[in-house]
Amino acid sequence: MIKRIAQAWGFASILLLPDYIDMTSPVGDARMRVASPLTKIALAHLADMAIVAVLFLGLTALLRRSSAWTKIRWALMALLPVALFLRNLNVIPFDIPDATVFALSVLWPALLILLIWKTPRMAAQFCRFGSSLLTGFVIFALVMTWQLVRAAQWRPLPQSFAAAIPAQPAGKPRLVWILFDELAYKPVFETRDPSLRLPNFDRLRSESTLFTDVTPIGYRTTRVVPGLMLRRYVTDVAYTADNRYLIKTQDNPHWHEFDAKDSLFGMAKQDGVTTSIVGWYIAYCPVFAHIATDCYWSNDDAQDRGPTMLRESFGANVWEPLRVMAEETVSPSLAWADQTRWNAEGHIASVKDVSAHALSTLATSQ
Fold first, then answer.
1. For residue 190, what is the DSSP state?
2. The pLDDT of residue 365
3. Helix, strand, coil in percent for the chain, rounding step 5
4. What are phi and psi of 272, to 5 degrees?
């Protein structure tokens, strides 16, 4: 019985890996993006693992009672590895061509059929090996379970802070720096839908210096933003469980602390300039705690892997990943629509929250 429980827990941990992998990442992908404890999300993922494990255990127990169990077991050996492989494609850190995915998905069942047909004894040994391998996955499952328990215990630093702002002389210039994450120039200005009116963007463009021959510093928010702050190429980032912001740069490939004093905000402080930050997706306030004068950061978006959201109930965060996973099997288009709706709701909440705080900050005359 212990072996079957181990197999069920191992299967559940791998099947659900795309949903919770960011929660267990040593570089702190999930921690870096949220200003609230992840307890509710981590416990929801553990609940999902338990639900899937119980279902797997119950279903296999029923199938073992069938007179056709031997054939069913071979069918499961042919289908389950393929299903787990396809389910985890977006977790694999490199792209696999569709043709390769198709070939591997066909090759595995074909190999099993060939073994059963040509070498039954070897096929039986292979079957026992597969059973032992599935049991061994419990080690992976236990590691992931421990990581989720750790994520549930993580506590972020304060979401905001504000120091006293001294009175400023009338007419003192103000610099407003706005970073638009994922706002593409072409669909906004060059190929905009005729039904979409953006008068403020059009006015901004007409009154601005426009640079059209530009090479991006990077393609991920977590690397671009610190790169802009430090004025050098950031190749990787990590946000540890004790809320330390670590980076790798082109000139220093080893992990080292992000030096807030050497950033643009640090330079501003050295020049006696008061600064305020309103940000999304990056842990601005913990990073610039002793540098900026005023700060607020937030993120109500769905988790990148999810689908889970901090603003949703525990029950919703348990149900939504299971529902979407089931829909991916039965109706991929429905799963896509539900995930899109879920993501949009969280993103709209983020935009409204951050916009309100940004406008409030801009209204402060100092």
1. I
2. 67
3. 60, 10, 35
4. 80, 20
**Strands 252-257 and 245-249, sheet pairing:** antiparallel
Q: What is the pLDDT of residue 182?
A: 78
Inter-CA distances, 110 with 71, 75, 293, 302, Å: 15, 12, 64, 39
Least confident of 118-122, 209-213, 312-316: 118-122
Question: Contact at 8 Å (CB) between 236 and 223?
Answer: yes
Task: Give strand ranges (E) for 208-366.
Answer: 234-239, 245-249, 252-257, 276-280, 294-298
Cα 349 to Cα 161, 309, 354: the distances in Å are 21, 11, 9
Strand arrangement of the beta sheet that strand 234-239 belongs to: 234-239, 245-249, 252-257
Model confidence at 350, in pLDDT bands (50, 70, 90)?
very high
Give whole-number Cα distances, 276 to 171, 180, 268, 358, 365, in Å: 18, 17, 11, 9, 12
| 331's tokens | 């109706």
Distance set, CA 98 to CA 19, 89, 95, 164, 329 (Å): 22, 11, 9, 57, 18
**Residue 199 is which amino acid?**
P
Q: Give first-to-last CA distance, the chain, whole Å.
A: 68
For residues 353 and 220, give the distance between their C-alpha atoms in angstroms, rounded to a whole number.
22
CA angle 100, 125, 60 (to 5 degrees): 75
Least confident segment among 263-267, 299-303, 317-321: 299-303
| DSSP label at residue 165 | P
Single-letter code of the amino acid located at 36:
S
Question: DSSP 3-state assignment of 100?
Answer: helix
Checking if the pLDDT of 142 tops 80, the result is yes
- Residue 162, H or E segment: strand 160-162
The full DSSP string for 14-76 is: HHTHHHHHHHH-TT-HHHHH-SS--HHHHHHHHHHHHHHHHHHHHHHHHHHTSTTHHHHHHHH
pLDDT tens-place string over residues 20-60: 998 888 888 888 888 999 999 999 999 999 999 999 988 88
Residue the block writes with tokens 């985890």: 88
Long-range contacts of 174-177 (CB under 8 A, 24+ apart): 176/362
**Tokens 């999930």 belong to which residue?**
30
